[in-house]
Amino acid sequence: MPREVLNSIKVHSVKFNPMRTKYIFVTGGVISTLGKGITTSAIATLLESKGYKVTCVKCDAYVNIDAGTMNPTEHGEVFVTSDGVETDQDVGNYERFLHRSLSRVNYLTTGQVYQKVIERERNLEYGGRCVEVVPHVPEEVIRRLKEAAKRDDADIVIAEIGGTVGEYQNVLFLEADRLLKRESPDDVINMHVSYLPIPKSVGEMKSKPVQYSIRTLQSTGIQPEFVIARAERSLDDKRKEKIAVFGNVSYENIISNPDVASIYEIPLLFASDHLAEKIVKALRMPKASSSSRFGLTKWEHLARRIKNVRTPVRVGIVGKYFDTGEFILEDSYISVIEAIKHAAWRLNRKPEVQWLDSQEFETSSRALAKLNNFHAIIVPGGFGSRGVLGKIRAIEYARRRKIPYLGLCYGMQLAVVEFARNVLGKPRAHTEEIDSKTSDPVIHILPEQKQLMAKKQYGASMRLGSYECALTNGSLARSLYKKSVIHERHRHRYELNNKYREELENRGMSISGVNRERNLAEIVELKNHPFFVGVQFHPEFQSRPLEPHPLFLGLVKAGDGRV
Ligand code: GLN
Prior knowledge:
Elements: H1 3-8, E1 22-28, H2 36-49, E2 54-60, H3 72-75, E3 79-80, E4 86-87, H4 89-98, E5 107-109, H5 110-122, H6 133-151, E6 156-161, H7 171-183, E7 188-195, H8 208-218, E8 226-231, H9 237-247, E9 254-258, H10 266-272, H11 275-282, H12 297-308, E10 312-319, H13 326-332, H14 334-346, E11 350-357, H15 358-363, H16 365-368, E12 376-379, H17 388-401, E13 405-408, H18 410-422, E14 430-431, E15 441-445, H19 447-454, E16 463-471, H20 476-481, E17 485-492, E18 494-496, H21 501-506, E19 509-515, E20 520-526, E21 532-535, H22 550-559
Parallel strand pairs: 1-6, 1-7, 2-5, 2-6, 7-8, 8-9, 10-11, 10-12, 12-13, 13-21, 14-15
Antiparallel strand pairs: 3-4, 15-18, 16-17, 16-19, 19-20, 20-21
Helix pairs in contact: 2-4, 2-10, 5-6, 6-7, 8-9, 14-22, 17-18
Bound molecules: glutamine.
Glutamine binds at residues 381-383, 409-410, 413, 433, 491-494.
């Protein structure tokens, strides 16, 4: 049946969606860390602003089943979805741009694909045939992309292939891309994100590396329809012409993607190049049937505000970082940084985030005085013993000096340890994670975690994903969230020991959020303090640029005018 006829069919009140799912594959060339994830997210935002329903899938080449077992200083932040999957930080970017929660279908690794293929083979699902890397492995990738389309009811799936073309690692995803295009040529397009350097000695932008990376992509049987040209500056006609001619790409589909002040400008940048219209044309898509949740106007306002904010809000993040290098540092806590920015912009403040090495506070009390220069202090999530004493000292300083403090997961647990030591008078109080024999385990292991640890079952075994939390009437948390029941995402093995709850509350540390199902303390706060809140969960995962998180808003507001 021709598509026009299909389009006109309306079955009573049932929504009839005749549009076939379309797929955009995003590959990278020349160098890694080009911002493919941001490009993918920005394109999704732009297409959604036109009324299409878009979902994104990160295809990670690692053999790991998920990102939970990867060291964040090597791989970046582990982003947790509400259904409890430990994913790549790009899934966080997708959520922040789409303003929607994603799930397990949006994250795919080589490990997951092989695991499934092997499982199917064991279950005789291949009917006695030899199971081969090609086609069975890429077929599994395609099945997963289709599952994502179905689960998210998407008109368009954008599959971001991790790494760069030419790596052995991501060949199976490229093969899936090629096979899907072969199966439905009208429904699949390729976007190649590549890089044009401006070597200092030459002083001019060079297009040859992009030409090479397109060639490499072509050698896998894939012809990109679009090239997203990352560079310090916008491309001139000459470079576009060269890429078009040598890469076999139409001139208008070479899209400039220069460095910009904020990533949230990129959907607007692409809009000015009419990228959505070009994609719709290339995919032969009918007009979107629904109106968009977010038009671009809200993004325009945000971009303007980001450019105009002047009054700074300085937030110090206390962690154990200094042997990792700055770039990775930012990546390891990207959701925390973004959450600070979202809240600051909303309150017309210019966010300034500074890293504070907790180990410095262990050796020098003078270093602590630095904390006075900040509007607010955060101790983010973490694991292990390094730098813990320094974090506890910083928390003590923030508590006594009344510096607004937000503790995220480990930052909440260590706030309880500090309070137990210095207010309850239990100098040996600790978390069992660091001192399993402490006489005062104010933070102790969750019972099921004890068994898992004994069996060495580490993968995807923490308390993960979204759980309900009831807020206490009259608490700061209750007034910030403006509701009595919330859902927040978790990633931890330890929790506040209920044996100490009464004592803590009697001395001024109130439990203002509880998971009623298991009677777990999820939020602690102090009364005689402008803002001292510790949360067992990770609110940063749910903060979005156009919908900042109430706790971060509360923190930034509390710090206003402090220094
Ligand atoms: N290490 C702590 C735990 O496992 C905190 C984890 C975190 O900060 N995400 O409970």
